[in-house]
Specification:
The chain has 182 residues and is of the alpha/beta class. The protein is built from 5 helices and 7 strands, in the order H-E-H-H-E-H-E-E-E-E-E-H. Helices cover 24% and strands 15% of the residues.
């Protein structure tokens, strides 16, 4: 028995509306200090990374073979979107102080946002954390191991055990990122 997928339709603004909103955003950015951006799945959909609950989202399609056949969760070949790059430029120009993300795709780091100005509340598929010294190790490949949080690689700093830093349902947010996000 196949379930019916009910999902919201996506809406796109006209060029005129986008230009008006961009002008409003520019005014806000120029008139404020200590700006923090909080991003979620929608920022990465144009990089062919599905959101979680949209019409083609991971959660929406979780019980359907359509998702199982998809390779959209291979993050290694994904590139930052224009939005990621715009935010990185605002950080570089010191117009945005900090970025908080719920995404695990690593695109904010790839866009050039420094790690000390980014909190990835759900982790990052390219970062391993040492269980002994808490050092982060950045990789150019996905470090997530299916059914095994520890990947059996040793920390280059202290030799401790490395594991991914992804947050699963019911787990606490990573303390460093949560502290920095406040």
């Amino acid at each position: 028995m196949s379930a019916v997928i009910k999902a919201s339709r996506e809406y796109f603004d006209s060029r005129e509306v986008i230009e008006k909103k961009a002008a409003q955003l520019a005014v806000m950015l120029k008139s404020r200090k200590n700006i923090v951006f909080h991003t979620g799945a929608g920022i990465s959909t144009s990089a062919s990374i599905p959101d979680f609950r949209g019409p083609k989202g991971v959660w929406t399609l979780r019980n359907h073979t359509e998702w199982e056949k998809s390779d959209n969760l291979a993050f290694e070949d994904k590139l930052p979107t224009l939005t990621h790059m715009a935010i990185a430029e605002l950080v570089k120009r010191k117009m945005v102080r900090f970025v908080i993300s719920q995404n695990v795709d690593g695109l904010h780091l790839k866009s050039g946002i420094p790690r000390n100005q980014l909190a990835e509340l759900h982790g990052d598929v390219f970062i391993e954390v040492c269980s002994k010294c808490n050092s982060e190790v950045f990789r150019d490949f996905e470090v997530v191991e299916v059914n095994d949080r520890q990947n059996w690689r040793a920390c280059p700093s202290c030799g401790g055990q490395l594991s991914d830093n992804l947050v699963d349902f019911g787990e606490k947010l990573p303390p460093r990122d949560l502290r920095n996000a406040r």
